[in-house]
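In keeping with the milestone schedule agreed at the kick-off meeting, the structural modelling team has produced records for the first pair of proteins. Each record is given below as a sequence line and a structure-token line. The laboratory manager (R.T.) confirmed that both were archived under the project's standard naming scheme.
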Amino acid sequence: MAAKLGARSIARLETCDPDLVRVIRRAEQVSPIDFTILAGLRSDEEQRFLYAQGRTLPGKIVTHVDGVNKRSKHQANPQGLSDAIDVAPWPIDWDDEKRFILLAGVILAAAKLEGVDIRWGGDWDQDGDMNDHRFVDLPHFELVR
């Protein structure tokens, strides 16, 4: 069973660097579970809003990058595209960490097959240990450049 991205996910995917698009398209072909694209490119305003969550606005902290002092890989690269993407298993169950880990394995394998160096927000230092990070972002994948 291959995943099939919906129109909204495809539109979000198209805001990403072509290397990320190749990785996600490969993952789509081989994934045993469906997934959705939550975010690709973010405007500066969107990044600042997300940074404010859990700080000056209600909600849970979802990023440690303010978009001003440090830019997010979701903000436009020189080509106007995102070097990061947020992907979640569909249907989304934020409490089902195992499905996020399964999907991460699929995406990381797809990246390897495509020859694209990416980093996963569940294991920022890529050492196989998810417990040695102060902030875990299971849906997040970014190009390493």
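The second protein of the pair:
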Amino acid sequence: MKVSDIVKERPLSTIAPDKTVQEAIKILNELNIGALPVCNEKGELAGIITERDVLRLCDGGDVAKGLQQKVSAVMTKNLIICVPDDSIENAMHVMTNKRIRHLPIIGEGRRLVGILSIGDIVKAKLDDASTEIRFLRDYVTGG
């Protein structure tokens, strides 16, 4: 199974690097998501701002001042990414080893085409296991 098999076409929310952390938090909360890709004006991925990035900022002292910082100052810039043809097993391995919950999916020209979450992987694996169990039951019972 590939990344492209489980990440369906859906609207993808992003934020510009010059927006404030407070604006990013508002989007994260409104969409009930844990990570927000940061894209430049060309649509190229520049970074990602996650709940962890916000928590680190809040742990640093003056929270009100921190919320007014630009996303570019707080975002994770050293990105770990995947491509649509990567296997789900490889993505799981990367996420586990790097202790991350979101992988941006990059297409040609460093363009963001999606984001893979650990929840997406868990759901796909559960669906796959359910299908396999159903086929095995049918095989055993002759149905």
